[in-house]
Amino acid sequence: MYEKGIQTRNHLYEISKKCFYEHGYEKTKIKDIVTTADTPIGLFTYYFKTKDKIVHEIYLDYYQQIGKCLNALTIDGFENPILHHAALSYIYFDLILNNENNRRFYYEILRKASNYRVAGDFIRNTYLGYIKEYNLVVSEREFDNLLFIDFGGRREYFLNYFEKPLNDSIDELIFLLNGILPRLLGIDQHAVTTLLYKGIQIAKTIDCRQIKFLYK
Predict the structure, then answer these.
(1) Is this model's pTM higher than 0.85 or not?
(2) pLDDT per residue as tens digits for the range 177-205
(3) How far is CA 138 from the centre of its chain?
(4) How would DSSP label each residue in 63-110?
(5) What does the radius of gyration of the chain's CA atoms come to, in whole angstroms?
């Protein structure tokens, strides 16, 4: 892709995040994005095809931002995937749920479909790390089914979280959600609880101001 093309694509991407942040997913139309970006609609469809393609990229970029921040740390035992994922998840949800505009966007996407459809491909690798770390024997079909159960449970939980609403803290949320798959895989629960607690405490020490979900 030529430099000008990269600049145009990046411009559309950043404007999309700005529009999503200010107006939400549902009220933001492709025509709103291209009007704000002052670019032809054909360039949007050329680079992104659909609005949902940008959503997938936003989630992936956000996940990678947090991962990059965590990977720069030198903490003994931090290579454990449950520990690492707990710290990542705490930052992930803390930045989303404690910002009204981020919350709205996250809820609208979740209401539209399971987050498995926008985040499943990169979370999958994280969960494969659980299996490798604990030398578990799980068939590919069983693993896929466990992912569907995990993401389905998360979706129902968050629909309740937003619509009731629930008053669960981020700590409680991580202990619940990040404990689902280890329980399904039969990993020792005392070990899992210890790792989740340690991961949360690590996350609370990290300066996350450079990490953004939507508008920068």
Answers:
(1) yes
(2) 999 999 999 999 999 999 999 999 999 99
(3) 25
(4) HHHHHHHHHT---TTTT-HHHHHHHHHHHHHHHHHTSHHHHHHHHHHH
(5) 18
Residues in Cβ contact with 49 at an 8 Å cutoff, skipping those fewer than 6 apart = none
Amino acid code (one letter) for 76 = D
CA distances from 162 to 52, 159, 165, 167 (A): 22, 5, 5, 9
Look up residue 99 and give its two tokens: 């910002």
Distance of alpha carbon 124 from the chain centroid: 12
Please, are residues 93 and 173 in contact by the beta-carbon 8 Å criterion? yes
CB-facing half-sphere around the CA of 104: CA atoms within 13 A: 13
pLDDT over 90 at 120, yes or no: no
Give the three-class secondary structure for 12: helix
First to last CA, the chain: 24
Write down how long the chain is. Answer: 216
